[in-house]
Amino acid sequence: MISQDLSHVQTMFPLKPGDNIAYCKPDLSDFRDTVDALLADEAGRQRMGAAARADFANWARSWREHLTAGIEDPIRGVLSTDRTRRS
Predict the structure, then answer these.
(1) What is the mean pLDDT of residues 14-19?
(2) What pLDDT is stored for residue 76 in this prediction?
(3) pLDDT of residue 7
(4) Is the pLDDT score of 87 beyond 70?
(5) Crossing angle of the two packed helices 31-40 and 42-60, in degrees rounded to 10
(6) What tens digit of pLDDT does each residue of 24-79 get?
(7) How far apart are CA 57 and CA 61, in angstroms?
(8) What is the pTM of this model?
(9) Beta-bridge partner residues of 21
(10) How far apart are CA 17 and CA 1, in angstroms?
């Protein structure tokens, strides 16, 4: 996995730079260099790909919990706060 640097963003997926993802600059100016570095490192690329696949498979097994924690719970929290303000 290659992505713009998301280290400043809270994500539900466990992104681990150098383990299951390679980041490039937000403006993608080093995208080609990032790809070239991965292409030059067969063992590292294979390791990172395997880790990304395994991490995604593990993460995806709990999709209902992620949906609840990441979407349903925050919406319910906002709605309950909104009802409290109206009371």
Answers:
(1) 90
(2) 92
(3) 81
(4) no
(5) 110
(6) 999 999 999 999 999 999 999 999 999 999 999 999 999 899 889 888 999 999 99
(7) 6
(8) 0.69
(9) 17
(10) 10
How far apart CA 47 and CA 49 sit, in angstroms, is 5
For CA atoms 24, 13, 63, 56, the dihedral sign is: positive
- Given a contact cutoff of 8 angstroms between Cβ atoms, the answer to whether 34 and 27 are in contact is no
Q: Are 48 and 20 in contact (CB under 8 A)?
A: yes
Cβ proximity of 22 and 45 under 8 Å: no
The secondary structure of the chain, three-state, reads CEEECCCCCCCCCCCCECCCEEEECCCCCCHHHHHHHHHHCHHHHHHHHHHHHHHHHHHHCCHHHHHHHHHHHHHHHHHHHHHHHHC
Report residue 49 as tokens: 């790909």
Domain ranges of the chain: 2-61
